[in-house]
Design goal:
This is Anti-sigma factor antagonist. With 114 residues, the protein is an alpha/beta fold. It has one domain: 2-Layer Sandwich (Transcription Regulator spoIIAA). It contains 3 helices and 5 strands; from the N terminus they run E-E-H-E-H-E-H-E. The chain has a 5-stranded mixed beta sheet, with helices on both faces. The longest helix has 16 residues. The chain is globular.
């Protein structure tokens, strides 16, 4: 039995601020990388506090599996009293979220400069 391929072009950085946790995603959020995204977003050691920002400004591709993971993570965090905001530039993930009407579900903000 072979194990599934591990994506090489995805990374997640977690930055703790006093008032929020920022998860910066890089690469493609698809069926191969979503398990890593879930491990990060559901880890209370890394992602804690009342506000979570998932920065998608460096994401080059977001598919339906990635969208499903973001929706589920939002629901999970909300059930624990936290908020989840997405930070997007004018990129493919933002266009897909808008096209699917999820810009009305998620708070979407501009990414932080720098």
């Amino acid at each position: 039995m072979t194990s599934p391929p591990v994506p090489q072009d995805v990374a997640f950085d977690v930055v703790q601020h006093p008032d929020r946790t920022v998860v910066v995603a890089r690469g493609e959020l698809d069926v191969l990388s979503v398990p890593q995204l879930r491990r990060v977003l559901y880890d209370p050691v890394h992602v804690s506090g009342p506000a979570v920002v998932v920065d998608l400004s460096l994401v080059t591709f977001l598919d339906s599996v990635g969208i499903g993971a973001l929706v589920a993570a939002r629901r999970w965090l909300t059930s624990r009293g936290a908020t989840m905001t997405l930070a997007c530039g004018d990129n493919q993930p933002h266009r897909v979220l808008r096209m699917m009407g999820l810009d009305k579900v998620f708070d979407i903000i501009a990414p932080e400069p720098g």
